[in-house]
Structure formats: structure tokens, C-alpha cells
Amino acid sequence: MLFLTSVFANLVLPALVFCSPVVFHNRQEIGGSNTRNYIVGLKDGAPLASVLGLLDGLGITYSDLSIINGFSGPLDDVSLTILRASPDVDYIAEDGIVSIFGTQTQTNAPWGVARLSQSNRLTNQNTNSLSFSYTYDSSAGGGVDIYILGVRTTHVQFGGRARWGATFGGYIDADENGHGTHVAGTAAASQFGVAKAVNIIAVKVLSDNGTGAVSDIVAGMNWVAASVQASGRPSIASLSLGGSANTAFDNAATALVNMGIHVTVAAGNGNTDAERTSPARAAGVVTVGASTIGDARASFSNYGSVVDIFAPGDNIISCFKDSDTATPHVAGLIAYLIGLGGNKSPQAMISQINSLSISGVLSGVREFILLLTPKK
């Protein structure tokens, strides 16, 4: 069985060279070798050749930037005055230096996200500590939507990235239970989350005591499908819920996957074979079991061949209260990977996550995975 860890150590640092957004600095601010270099853009239809001919007459060396109908080069005050007076010039901007955002290291992280970013077992075994280090790309997850159970959208940890989507079952539009807020925090909170730039959309389908009808949940999933079709954005549905085997529930989850939506599902907390749990057994979803800070299967976590991967899920500190939530770690990771390398099919994403994970380090699992029929 695969254990979700060392993902960031193995992927993110090399990927930053190719995938990170960029930041511009004024060349004078950073002491560039040429502090008088400018980019000049001409108005639409303006004859670039005639302006370049003028530069030749002034003895200015330039680079032709015909893609923007302009050029770049070192300009003195006289040249600037002449160009600013030209009716053909649209703008003159000082050149800049571009650099990648480096990774950031957070030193007040909970243990779950810290475990994702290193391959070795954590030396600090205190699950209540918020002094773990987590190295990440702060832009990853940007432009990605995560649909999660009812969320307190105004929570300061979400920084305006959360909004209410829909409610099914006749409940109020608020998270009075706290579970959805906790889950959202693990996936996306500024301190507790994996992907700190992702957008959060709340879809409430359970009562405030944490239970609800399958029909309401399927209605919520139907709404998610329509919302994703309308937005066209890379999207993840994080389902930290489940119940006894139910074909309609499974089919709804698989339908989301078939639309290209990434669906992360809790294996369940019954210490039993997850093949009897919906939608954990559904085809195409990412079914997540829970691990402990000591790299063992959590005593409550379901197991079996339908479990794709284990992730931190025991005594996780987040936005609301301690809870056992492995699933949003993986939802956040998917958003993170999409932000770095672009979207891909759910099947390809599962393969990528599996390739980044390590095996043979999680205790309490092997005896449960023999002679079971895979879901896929």
C-alpha cells in the first residue's frame, strides 16, 4: 500500500524552474548591469521600421520586439525626449528582471502538511504541535476550485478565497457542525493547508449533526457537475463522508470523475474493509486512508484494495477542531499539482500521486490488503 509522503521533496523543487509564476523587479532596484534599458511599445498600426530607422540615426543599439510592435534598448535622456514626443509611441517602460518565486518555508505548520513535504518520519511526534516546517510554492493551487462540505467562508484562514455554493436538504447556509471548515482548512488554509492559493466552494449536504440523506448528497454532486461545466476551471470534489454500499452514490461519484473532475473520498473510519463503503468503493475516485504521525495506519481507518493511498489523518489541527481527515490532504495536493503542472485526467492524476508516494513505510496495513478485489 502506498503512503503519501515526500511528494514535495521529489516534485516541487525541480518543477519550480518550469512552472512557477514570475515576479518582476525594477532593474534599478536590484542593481542590474544596465539601469537605463527600456522597452518601447508603438501604437497599433504605427510603422515600426521608421522608428527603428530613427534609432539607427541616433546610433542606438536595440532589439526588435515586433511581437509587441516595439523594441528594447539603452536610452539616454536625449533619446527618451525624442521618443516621448513621437506620436507613434504608445508607452515607454523601464526594463525589468524576472525571477521565479522560490519555495517558501512555513515554520508553524501542523504535522500533516509537514509529513507530505519530507520522505523521513517526523522526529517531533507531538500531534498538538504547530512548530513543524512545511516547504511549498505559495502560488500552487491558484486557479483551481475545491468543492467541500459546508464551510465558514468568512474564516480569516481562507483570505477571501471561499464562497458559498449551494445547500441541499433544507439546512441553513452556514457550517454549524465545523467539519467542513476543518476539512477546507486542511486543504487550503493559509496556516494549516496544503494548497494555500486554491478557491473553496461550499456545498452543504449534511445536517449540523453530520448526517444527511444520500439523495441530498447526490443532488449536491449534481450541482457541482453543473458548476464545473459552467466555470471550465480545474476542479476537485472532496468527499470526507460515506456510508453503507449504495449504487446511486457510487455512480454519482464516478460520473464526476468521467467529467474530468478529481474526486477524493474518505476510506471511512470503521476499521473495516472499505469495499463495503460508498463512495469509497466507486470507480475512478481517489480513496484515502488515514495514517498517524508515527507512520502507521490509524486504528480507525478503513483499509483494503479500494484504498488508493494513505495520508495524514489522525489528530490533525485545522481551522475548527481536531478531526481525523486524510482526504483533504490529498484534495489539496491535487490542487497543488494542477497549479504547478497543469490539469490532467483524474486517472493520470492518480498515477502521478502514486508515483510520488512511497511504499513499505506504513505499519498496520499489509495484512489487510491480500486477496481483495480491486475497484478499478
UniProtKB/TrEMBL annotation:
Presence of keyword Protease: yes
GO MF annotations, alphabetized: serine-type endopeptidase activity
InterPro entries: PCSK9_ProteinaseK-like, Peptidase_S8/S53_dom, Peptidase_S8/S53_dom_sf, Peptidase_S8_His-AS, Peptidase_S8_subtilisin-like, Peptidase_S8_subtilisin-rel, S8pro/Inhibitor_I9_sf
GO annotation terms (biological process): proteolysis
Residues spanning the signal sequence: 1-19
Domain of life: Eukaryota
Keyword set, alphabetical order: Hydrolase, Protease, Serine protease, Signal
GO cellular component: extracellular space
Annotated Peptidase S8/S53 domain residues: 163-346
Family in the record: Belongs to the peptidase S8 family.
Protein name according to UniProt: Peptidase S8/S53 domain-containing protein
Organism the protein comes from: Sphagnurus paluster
Lineage: Eukaryota, Fungi, Dikarya, Basidiomycota, Agaricomycotina
